[in-house]
């Protein structure tokens, strides 16, 4: 049986989520324990956590701080704010009105960040003004993630993103942001903006109380995974690989033939997205290994075999290279 798509989250995003809680002297250990994340993992820059663990951490932090924006603004976004906003936006006529209302809502509740929806030349942008009090990339990403998830859910489809602009330098979690938002992320820009084609603004609202309940039940996992970027070539290849066992994966030339492009073009386009074919395969093995270690009782031998390693020692070496821990320690600590 082929494992389902299990993305993982880099450790720098765990640190970003915990930043404000740590600075306020809150019980971070309790939050990590509730999320099922070992404290030792914080010391490994290469370590990653599962989507489930990261979603649990979001809930634990929001509950402990009574803030759905994790202390990243001078004024907290109290628990229940996102739930109330989703109910309010269902009554809008179209997506344009919903975004305006959502931005207005956040502008009322947050002090440091002020949003604005603008349109020009067929492109709509959700701009975040920070009044020269520059925030970490994580803060802008969380704002857009909340809003973009609501947009996609309200319209009943993913709203494709054209590009993202940020004043900041490229963060460690760059590839994680590409996976969630879009491939074209422009750093050291003159503004913070999330761009998409303006025709989406005319989409009607398609949700009701029943679908809202289902959407909220799946949050925060919906925010992290459901509306992630599916258009990058790396994501398309990942989807193909996930349909096969690792022992059945195509080599590079066979994959290029299936995609009707040359091998050189395939490599060039992947490089532009920050990947190689081997890295994509390693990432899937890594994420599957994390999922199997955390959510099954399979032995290390069984996991090694399912991931098509020659022997368990090769699996041990690879997993430690990926995460900084050997698989046995990773399982026991988490």
What is the overall pLDDT average?
A: 90
Largest sheet at a glance? 5 strands, mixed
Q: What's the order of the H and E elements? A: EHHEHHHEEHEHEEHHHHHHHHH
What percent of residues adopt helix (DSSP H or I)? Answer: 40-55%
Give the termini separation: 25 Å
The radius of gyration over CA amounts to 21 Å
Query: Which class of secondary structure composition applies to the elements?
Result: alpha+beta
The tally of beta strands, per DSSP, is 7
**In terms of per-residue confidence, which ranges show pLDDT below 50 for 5 or more consecutive residues?**
1-5
The number of helical runs is 16
> What shape does the CA trace take?
globular
Portion in beta strands = 5-15%
What does this structure look like?
The protein has 334 residues and is α+β, with helices and mostly antiparallel strands. The protein has 16 helices and 7 strands. The strands form 2 sheets. Strands 3-4-7-5-6 form a 5-stranded mixed sheet. Strand 3 and strand 4 form a beta hairpin. The N terminus is likely disordered.
């Amino acid at each position: 049986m082929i494992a389902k798509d299990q993305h993982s989250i880099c450790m720098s995003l765990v640190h970003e989520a915990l930043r404000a809680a740590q600075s306020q002297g809150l019980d971070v250990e309790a939050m990590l324990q509730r999320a099922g994340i070992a404290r030792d993992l914080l010391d490994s820059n290469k370590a990653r956590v599962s989507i489930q663990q990261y979603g649990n951490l979001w809930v634990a932090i929001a509950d402990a701080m009574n803030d759905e924006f994790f202390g990243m603004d001078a004024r907290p976004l109290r628990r229940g704010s996102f739930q109330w906003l989703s109910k309010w936006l269902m009554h809008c006529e179209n997506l344009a009105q919903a975004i305006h209302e959502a931005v207005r809502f956040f502008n009322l509740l947050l002090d440091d960040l002020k949003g604005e929806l603008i349109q020009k030349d067929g492109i709509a942008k959700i701009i975040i003004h920070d009044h020269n009090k520059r925030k970490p990339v994580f803060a802008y990403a969380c704002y857009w993630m909340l809003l973009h998830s609501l947009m996609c859910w309200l319209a009943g489809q993913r709203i494709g993103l054209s590009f993202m602009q940020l004043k900041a330098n490229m963060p460690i979690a760059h590839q994680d942001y590409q996976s969630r938002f879009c491939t074209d992320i422009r750093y050291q820009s003159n503004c913070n903006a999330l761009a998409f084609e303006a025709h989406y603004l005319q989409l009607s609202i398609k949700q009701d109380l029943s679908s809202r309940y289902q959407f909220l039940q799946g949050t925060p996992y919906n925010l992290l995974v459901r509306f992630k970027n599916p258009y990058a070539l790396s994501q398309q290849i990942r989807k193909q690989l996930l349909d096969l066992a690792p022992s059945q994966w195509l080599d590079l030339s066979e994959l290029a033939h299936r995609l009707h492009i040359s091998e050189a073009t395939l490599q060039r386009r992947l490089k532009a997205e920050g990947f190689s074919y081997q890295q994509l395969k390693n990432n899937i093995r890594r994420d599957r290994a994390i999922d199997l270690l955390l959510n099954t009782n399979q032995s290390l031998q069984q996991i090694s075999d399912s991931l098509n390693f020659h022997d368990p020692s090769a699996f041990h070496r690879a997993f430690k290279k990926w995460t900084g821990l050997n698989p046995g320690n990773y399982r026991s600590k988490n």
